[in-house]
Amino acid sequence: MENPTRRAHTMPFGAELRAEGGVRFRIWAPTQATMTLTVEGRGDPVPMTALADGWHECVVDDLGAGARYRFGLADGNAVPDAASRHQPNDVHGPSEVIDPRGYAWGDGAWRGRPWEEAVLYELHVGAFTPEGTFRAAIDRLDDLVALGITAIELMPIADFPGARNWGYDGVCLFAPDASYGRPDDPKALVDAAHARGLMVLLDVVYNHFGPEGNYLGAYAAPFFTNRHETPWGAAINFASPTVRDFTIHNALYWLEEYHFDGLRLDAVQAIMDDSEQHLLEELAERVRDHLGGERAIHLILENEENLASLLERDAAGRPEHYTAQWNDDVHHVLHTAATGEDAGYYADYAGDTRQLARALAEGFSFQGEMMPYRGSPRGEASRHLPPTAFVSFIQNHDQIGNRAFGERLTTIAPAHVVRLVAAMYLLAPQIPMLFMGEEWGASQPFPFFCDFGPALAEAVRNGRRAEFARFPEFRDAATREQIPDPIGEGTYLAAKLGWDDRRRAPHDEWLAWYQRLLALRHAEIVPRLAGIGGHAGEHAIVGEGGVAVTWRMGDGSRLNLLANPSEGPLSGVATPAGRRLWQEGAVTADGVGAWSLIWSLETHDGAVA
Prior knowledge:
Elements: E1 14-17, E2 23-28, E3 36-39, E4 46-47, E5 49-50, E6 55-60, E7 68-72, E8 78-79, E9 95-96, E10 120-123, H1 125-128, H2 134-138, H3 141-147, E11 151-154, E12 158-159, E13 172-176, H4 184-195, E14 199-204, H5 216-219, E15 224-230, E16 233-236, H6 241-257, E17 262-265, H7 279-291, E18 298-301, E19 324-326, H8 328-339, H9 353-362, E20 370-371, E21 376-377, E22 390-392, H10 397-401, H11 409-412, H12 415-427, E23 431-435, H13 454-468, H14 477-480, H15 489-494, H16 507-525, E24 538-542, E25 546-552, E26 558-564, E27 570-571, E28 579-584, E29 587-588, E30 591-592, E31 596-602
Parallel strand pairs: 10-11, 10-23, 11-14, 14-17, 17-18, 18-19, 19-22, 22-23
Antiparallel strand pairs: 1-2, 2-6, 3-4, 3-7, 5-6, 7-8, 7-9, 12-13, 15-16, 20-21, 24-25, 25-26, 26-31, 27-30, 28-31, 29-30
Helix pairs in contact: 6-7, 8-9, 8-12
């Protein structure tokens, strides 16, 4: 019987240590008649045996963990292993044989946490601490627990080119990036988080590979297809059973071998698949069949199409496929209210109180209606889903980093306005997600950064500036030159959190405020989320710019919100019944002041809860 503290995920490809000794190497290279294996410090390349369906394999009996290797192609070039567990010298260097059972886990009793308890915290490993490593992140876990966080969500860690990257340019999907540490280091981070009651989710990218260091096309051209186009070029060929298996194994690998509690799948609308069963459905089913009986596993989507069908629940209220989706609609309505911005897709949300009320009460604000910005309908009906099927936020890596200067909300909106929108999303029944440093109003920006080689660097630099040329404020070339250089190391260093700021005003006040709100959420909201069922939220527009929303909670109580995210007061408006949970701004018997709100709670018969 396998020792659970030394468990590994068995894969049909890559380098696998054999129980009887030695290493089995296996690669899918359907466009290569012959393949060889080169091991550093050894003599001649080892011939690989060509198997059926494009597979090549060899076994080296006198080899073990730590060996570094490449696969040789017929044209004389040597490439790293696309299924490598470690790339010590980055994406162009040799792969390293890793003993996946070498780490002794201490979380044997961990069974995860129910999703309704989640308070998410998105972080970038490199910018989270001065050191920018997995091990350094461990030292900040106690701070997150004290804040009220119950789950951290890591931006992608799959090996990317260079020393710094947001993570969405990964090319070796099984190898934690060496700039953050060796493979045992993310395991130690997850282990330490579990010891503190924290779940750990990982952001994974299955819609494309990065533009540098992806060698699959050199020996496995059928990995990609021209039948579909994505924003990053030719689509991944999910009609191929081998490609599907590669992707699904990657999901299982992170969950089983690294003990992650869930995955966030990036931009799934760009996962093009004409198969009878879409990859997303098969992946979710395989994950739940393989691991669902052992501990709680949570699968989260980012999906521009707002497909509520992927979030359906069974008769017992359990997710059939995906646990939740990032709810951009909530972000957009709250952001436009707070900033007044109306450029690009914000135009479809700006000043629309109906969109705000619907997004809070029903999940999506676009549920099949025409979206003018994109010129087509967007979304599916979501009213029947529980609010816990949606992750809400006012900041994340995209919404900050896709700005020219990467400014945070506290930089572009007044403090009292930020407090209002934060109090709205942190106490609502949807699952809240903070972006690292939000809790103390961090002044550090989070601009886009990467570290491509010379062949790509100038194109990325120019492309970034051209992207903003269509905005009025950047039509002047001199102004565009002020946009931070995405390739420059200084752009990355500017994003690193300043943890010492938390001790100084006004950051210490922000931190205390967030702690109080999250303590209230855990005391009053979280216990009432179990069994909450479908939204069926009652929502109404109040006056010129106010919203009133009521949710029926899992224990039968009613959670009420009356909010005025506007500059003018709401007069002659009755405050909601029940026990007052939280007030922001001016709320009196005569109405609600500008940028003010009240949360209250009542039992199902109208009495104070």
